[in-house]
Amino acid sequence: MDFVKQITDYCQPTSPVIAIISLILNIFFPGCGTILNGLMGPKIEIMQIIIGVLQMITAVCLIGWIWSIIWGILIFMKKKGSLASQMK
User: What Gene Ontology terms describe where this protein resides (cellular component) (predicted)?
Assistant: First the structure.
């Protein structure tokens, strides 16, 4: 379980708009939203870019597409959760 937490820690959203765009891109173009999210932060997140490329490569066998959609949802949910905690 610790391994899964370490991997999902890499999906840090940069802004609400980028989180939504990342989700939409990951649904239609697997990996593109993850790469965009990795490039749009205050510093470039190499691990997110690598994950996005792996999602693109494995999209051929549908695993990457499903992974990309789940990753986009995680990005969106993390940003939504961080916004909710900021409002409290």
Answer: membrane
First to last CA, the chain: 29
* φ and ψ at residue 30, rounded to 5 degrees: -50, 130
User: What pLDDT, in 10s, does the model give residues 18-48?
Assistant: 888 988 999 999 999 989 988 987 888 898 8
Q: How far apart are CA 29 and CA 23, in angstroms?
A: 10
User: What is the C-alpha to C-alpha distance for residues 15 and 88, in angstroms, rounded to an integer?
Assistant: 18
Report which residue type is found at 57: I
Please determine, for residue 85, whether its predicted confidence score (pLDDT) is greater than 70.
no
Report helix, strand or coil for 44.
coil
